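Onboarding guide, step 5: your first structure request.
Type a short instruction followed by the sequence, for example:

Predict the 3D structure of this protein.
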Amino acid sequence: MDIKRDESFAKKKKMRRIVYGVVALLLVVGVTVVLSGLKPAAPTVEKGTLWFGTVTRGPMVIERRGLGTLVPEEIRWIPSQTQGRVEQRLIYAGTPVKADTVIMILSNPELEQSMLDAELALRAAEAAMTNLRVQLESDLLNQRAGAANVESQYNQAKLQADTDEQLRREQLASEIVAKRSALQANELKGRLEIEKKRLEIAAESVKARLAAQQAQVDQSKALFELRKKQYEALKVKAGVDGVLQLLAVEVGQQVAPGTNLCRVANPRRLKAEIRITETQAKDIQIGQKAEVDTRNGIVKGRVSRIDPAVQNGTVLVDVALEGELPAGARPDLSVDGTIEIERAMDVVFVNRPVQGQPNSTVTLFKVVEDGTAAERVQVKLGRTSVNTIEVLAGLQVGDQVILSDMSAQDGRDRIRLR
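The system replies with structure tokens like these:
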């Protein structure tokens, strides 16, 4: 038969369940709080995948590097001096040329005709000059002859007048005869003075008319020389010793005056055009030492020019090369250029990390515990070079740091190394 339980027993059982539940809840909350307070375990990174650097004290060469090309110092573009048609190309790009080497031949029938017309006009002007000179010399001689005749008549009349005056004084001739002779002499004297003046004016007129005709001759000659020079320029010559680099026109092409036909350069005189990022170009000065790597040798040089403009985030720097060029150096060859900014003799520095910028503060992982771990430290950086950077604070000489990109460990202050 069933026995009825005591009500106090049921209450006690219910209370035990409540106590157990509260204890379990407290245990869960406690474990959660403890676990939340624990730091996550440091991740492990393979040493072989990292790039390390050691902090060093000593001389540090501050340099700037950029890519560039070799270009000739002497480049001559040869333009067309007149309109014409390309008839023939005698040589091609890459051929050595002398100053008088004919590169191509143009044709222009109208120019040839105009040169012949100018030559005929010059000959006609010279013939007119010769004819005028003969005519003026003849007229001048006639003028001189007339003046000489009047002078002769004057001398005879003066002699007669003097004779008649002497006879009048001796009463061997009448006074009227003496006066008539004197009057005739005075008249011839006036005519002689007029003839001399006319002779002077005639001589000046001869000079003026000859000068005017000579100006026409000179004008015709200048036009002929111009047409002749233009005609001779149809044979396009190099103008300088060097190598033909480029032919800019094709056979049969019509060209206008001023059109660039070809380019000649001296391959023995090259310079390097190096492009430096605009943020680093501010420290570059004319005269600084430089080295140019042609992949077949390194050539010393100095900065000779800095372009004032910025193009595509870079500044163009010209480096004048010193000494012999290595074999294989030629125009448009790609090169690496390194420019020395300064030499700091006693500096604490390290190889440049991936994200190291000049005059900035970065965080780097410093190797600790005999190389088994690395801790994040703040490092103040100073001047930079191509491969090194100055350390102002945060590291000591001999410290080893990780230079690789550690962005994957952002939020981690410590890592394990193996």
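Each response can be followed by summary notes, for example: The chain is about 35% helix and 35% strand.
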